[in-house]
Amino acid sequence: MTGPRAGSEDAAGADAAGADAAGSGPARRAQVLDGTATARAIKSELAERVAALAARGVVPGLGTVLVGDDPGSRAYVGGKHKDCAEVGIASIRADLPATATQAEIEVAVDRLNHDPACTGYIVQLPLPKGIDTNRVLELVDPAKDADGLHPTNLGRLVLRVDGPIDSPLPCTPRGIIELVERHGIDLAGTHVVVVGRGTTVGRSIGLLLTRRELNATVTLTHTGTRELAAHTREADVIVAAAGVPGIIRPEHVRPGAIVLDVGVTRVVDDETGRTRLAGDVHPGVAEVAGWLSPNPGGVGPMTRAMLLANVVEAAERAQV
Ligand SMILES: Nc1nc(=O)c2c([nH]1)NC[C@@H]1CN(c3ccc(C(=O)N[C@@H](CCC(=O)O)C(=O)O)cc3)C=[N+]21
Predict the structure, then answer these.
(1) What number does CATH give the domain 57-142?
(2) Ligand 1 centroid from CA 73, angstroms
(3) Per-residue confidence (pLDDT) for residue 9, from 0 to 100
(4) What is the ipTM of this complex?
(5) Yes or no: is domain 11-34+183-302 CATH 3.40.50.720?
(6) Which of 34, 64, 76 to probe ligand 1 with, by most ligand atoms within 8 A of CB?
(7) pLDDT of residue 28
């Protein structure tokens, strides 16, 4: 793949350098890594594959297990089923009350494992306090793990440095990589600094990026890292996934670098008193970075598109 190399002396990098710390010079805002448009393109490709499966009598089905009535979790699950309808994937919902016991949740998981209409499913996180989340997640049939976070699937990712991976991949890491590549950026040889050690993004994305065909170099930092800016300023690509609003500020970013905002923290807006989502990237970063994923409209829609991709791929695998 060709295209602007992160950290190269291309026009975007040079212009952004003009808007560096001194604050003078022409402010050239970062180019947008448009997750909404990219997810739309992926969904239309997936709709064709779903149609091909339907012609052979196969309808992929996505299941969700939602426990409790957290408005955020409800909204995410609703969005996933809306996405399914768009591409022709069937929806299966298991909604349990906040009072559901460990055993009741495990029964819901067991049902989906044995439901032939369910190709893949997710257990929406977080689960209520008192529930052993790891125990629930380990009961998911690895072949139906639409999140790609089952220990078996993460283990395969650890063990397979090259060659095909015939198991589901973690959605957000995969979405980040697709988002960057589909904007013509080649990650091979780049230095990616990941901020955040959560299992869904920080701890798993390096397993994908360092595979031989992607060939990126990865530094994993987190909220306990000393001199965070010294690390992030070395990055061609920053993946901000700490869940700390605004943790990545302009001075953390090398002019022209690629910045992905993965943060989804619910905060109360000082001015309106309403809750809103806050990303990990300070707005001023747009004046320094070469490329920036907006939030919303960046990594979130890509995560959802990759969930659909995992379900379609599981259905295709079950065919052969
Ligand atoms: N088992 C499980 N799998 C998950 O993948 C999972 C989860 N649990 N728990 C919560 C997090 C969070 N997450 C998001 C996905 C899409 C958007 C998304 O599409 N956001 C829109 C904006 C939505 C809004 O404004 O409310 C956007 O970025 O444009 C956000 C957040 C998936 N998660």
Answers:
(1) 3.40.50.10860
(2) 8
(3) 38
(4) 0.96
(5) yes
(6) 76
(7) 82
Helix and strand element counts for the chain (H, E): 10, 11
* pLDDT reported for residue 24: 53
- pLDDT attached to residue 246: 98
Residue nearest to atom 25 of ligand 1 (CA): 296
243, 283, 19, 218 alpha-carbon torsion, rounded to 10°: 20
Ligand 1, CB cutoff 6 Å, lining residues? 75-76, 122-125, 147, 171, 264, 277, 295-297, 300-301, 303-304
Annotated binding site for NADP(+): 196-198, 264
Q: Tell me the C-alpha distance between 4 and 290, whole Å.
A: 10
Closest ligand 1 atom, residue 36 Cα: 29
Residues classed as catalytic: 80, 124, 147
Contacts of the segment 275-282: beta carbons below 8 A, 24+ positions apart:
278/245, 278/246, 279/240, 279/245, 279/246, 280/195, 280/196, 280/240, 280/241, 280/242, 280/243, 280/244, 280/245, 280/246, 280/247, 280/248, 281/240, 281/246, 281/248, 282/246, 282/248, 282/249, 282/250
C-alpha 100/C-alpha 139 separation (Å) is 17
Fold agreement (11-34+183-302, 57-142): yes
According to the model, what pLDDT value does residue 25 have?
A: 57
Distance in Å, CA 13 to ligand 1 centroid: 31
Low-confidence ranges of the chain (pLDDT < 70): 1-27, 320
What is the distance in A from the centroid of ligand 1 to the CA of 56?
Answer: 32
Q: Where are the domains of the chain?
A: 11-34+183-302, 57-142
**Residue set of the binding site:** 196-198, 264
**The pLDDT of residue 3:** 42
Q: What is the pLDDT of residue 319?
A: 84
